[in-house]
Amino acid sequence: MKLKKWSLLAVVGALVAALALFGCSSGDDGAKKDEGGSAPATESGYALINDGKLTVAASLDFPPFENLNGDKPEGFEVELMQALAEEMGIECEYLPSTKFDTIVPLIQTGGKADVGVSGITINDERLEQVDFTDPICDVNQGITVLKESGITEVNQLEGKKVGAQTGTTGYEWAAENIKDVEMVGFDEMTAVYAALQSGQIDAIAVDLPVTNYYVKTAYTDCEVIAEIPTGEQYGIAVSKDNPELTKALNEAIKAVRDSGKYDEIAAKWLQ
Description:
alpha/beta
């Protein structure tokens, strides 16, 4: 009789332990990760790669929007992202410089950065891959040549070599609108200007604020010969799997604009 009593207790105890283990493994693990293994959502409903930090992917050679001052990112979008993160009650952290044409695919894939910037124009092709916030900047394209080149109009570039950063709307515009053009793509903007100075290309197609900055500060032997009214708008790229982050960023953008902080940052970098 005594033996049966203890055997029954052992069975009951084992059953309780098994139920507890099952409950822990299914319930708690589901709270920590979704089916895709993504980061847990914050109290605001959006997920972050690193808790309490907005991780940003950018090509850090795109002044005045992003650039490296030593090893520290600076520029219009850098300060804007910092202001947005502060408004959201989190920190802002930039990854090492990322090739421009890999930023949108990186955000689409997920796992390394929460958002992508670097003068990313909102267009239909990119909207198939990622979501975008409300626009953060309006821009046109610009065409730049060497001052002594004799080229004063865009139509003189027919059949010539035009350089641009690979994957940019400047590259696309020149390829589609300059007759018989030979496009030459580069990973970094500084390489595009070096190619112009060395005679490898005849002109550059790039966002107007960027080429204005480079011509004014570093490449004074170059000049902008045309502004192309493409009417583009930059946005912040966000994964389609993280709509609450897009919503939170839009709310922060509105708050930063309403407070006057946006105009303060723009006056510093875009004038």
